[in-house]
TrEMBL record:
Keywords: Signal. InterPro entries: Leu-bd, Peripla_BP_I. Belongs to the leucine-binding protein family. This is Substrate-binding domain-containing protein. The keyword Repeat does not apply. Gene3D superfamilies: 3.40.50.2300. Residues 36-329 form the Leucine-binding protein domain. It comes from the Bacteria. It comes from Cupriavidus basilensis. It holds the Pfam family Peripla_BP_6. The keyword Signal applies. SUPFAM superfamilies: Periplasmic binding protein-like I (SSF53822).
């Protein structure tokens, strides 16, 4: 597919590239006879580190589906939007495109704050497949959430850290937004049930310049572990400062959102004692993932954007959309939607998603899977 730039929905200051809702590109030939899918992923801003791999995974899935006859006989055409928290125009921009019949579906990998805007824009008129981990509880008509929830991911990982690594005293640190706050609330209750203690629960804005005060509090409180619910570059900066402070020698860290791109950016010298829970790691050695990696690198080369859980969720999301379109309207609700999933996802509704979830420990620039949760 060839990409060409389009105009933004409104004029943007040149020094604020992350805030634009620019339609980053569209596949040549979008129009009548094709099924236009809006791909909403962070292109710039704090979460922009996820953009290249997410776009590549979406493109790979679209090309594979098109070779198989497309969706309902219609070839997929992708239009990419910069889905960052700073972008406030998404409801207006997407809403207009939906009303004008220029979008047939949306696949999104972005924060929950952006999800609420996309949900308002689509209003159940077109399918909206939401792919990343999130706090759970999405029930709006037309929104299909397929990512990990705390019940599947965070809470089992927290229990493993308490029981296996004797991490009973915790400090929670997250961005000041929906997913960290909701996840921390659930984690605090689970930790109490396990006999543990939350010493502090701290939130920082996106783009926080320094974590010195948070790190000083961690030094004072002397927890066994830190739960990190920081996103993108914020997670990178925190972990760099954490490593430089020397805390990694005695305090473990657990995250559900750090992936392979972030790990590379954090630096091998700052990853001791860093654990991540996720439904996907590029290091998984099962046959399905090995075949997926072969297709991915065969398409984009050995220097392709690094595979990771957030990007891979978009690949599964594209196949979920294709299966959703093909499902009979009277299909039994108790039966899972059958679709091609690298992760082995089972979806019977947003409240009934199942998939394997793994706990991995950082080993320099790589993740080593410790166990299945």
């Amino acid at each position: 597919m060839q990409w060409k730039p389009l105009r933004s929905s409104r004029a943007q200051a040149p020094d604020d590239p992350s805030a634009t809702c620019l339609v980053e590109g569209e596949a040549s030939g979008c129009g009548a006879g094709r099924l236009t899918v809006g791909l909403l992923v962070p292109v710039r801003g704090a979460a922009g580190i996820w953009g290249p791999s997410a776009r590549a995974c979406a493109q790979l899935a679209a090309e594979e589906i098109n070779r198989q006859g497309g969706i309902g006989g219609r070839e997929i055409c992708l239009r990419v939007f910069n889905a960052v928290d700073e972008c406030r125009d998404i409801p207006d921009l997407l809403g207009a495109l939906v009303r004008e019949g220029e979008l047939d579906a949306v696949v999104g990998m972005h924060t929950s704050a952006v999800r609420s805007r996309v949900r308002a824009a689509t209003a159940g008129r077109i399918p909206f497949v939401y792919t990343p981990l999130y706090e759970g509880g999405e029930r709006a008509p037309g929104v299909y959430a397929i990512g990990e929830t705390p019940e599947l991911q965070l809470l089992p990982a927290l229990e493993a850290m308490v029981r296996q690594y004797r991490a009973r005293r915790w400090v929670f640190v997250g961005n000041d937004c929906v997913w960290p706050r909701a996840s921390h609330f659930q984690a605090a209750g689970a930790l109490r049930a396990l006999g543990g203690e939350m010493l502090a629960d701290r939130y920082v804005p996106h783009g926080c310049g320094s974590y010195r005060k948070v790190l000083e509090e961690i030094e004072t409180l002397r927890p066994d572990a830190v739960l990190l619910s920081l996103i993108g570059q914020d997670a990178v900066r925190f972990n760099r400062e954490f490593g430089a402070s020397g805390l990694q020698r005695r305090v473990r860290r657990l995250s559900c959102a750090i992936e392979e791109n972030g790990l590379l950016a954090i630096g091998a010298g700052n990853t001791d004692g860093l654990f991540v829970a996720s439904g996907y790691f590029a290091a998984l050695a099962n046959d399905v993932n090995m075949a997926f990696k072969e297709r991915y690198h065969g398409r984009f080369g050995e220097r392709a954007p690094v595979l990771n859980a957030l990007a891979q969720s978009v690949y599964d999301g594209m196949y979920f959309l294709a299966a959703l379109a093909a499902a009979p309207e009277q299909a039994p609700r108790c039966a899972p939607l059958a679709f091609r999933s690298v992760r082995g996802l089972s979806w019977r509704g947003n409240a009934r998603v199942q998939q394997p979830v793994f706990l991995a420990e950082a080993n320099g620039h790589f993740f080593q899977v410790v166990r299945q949760l």
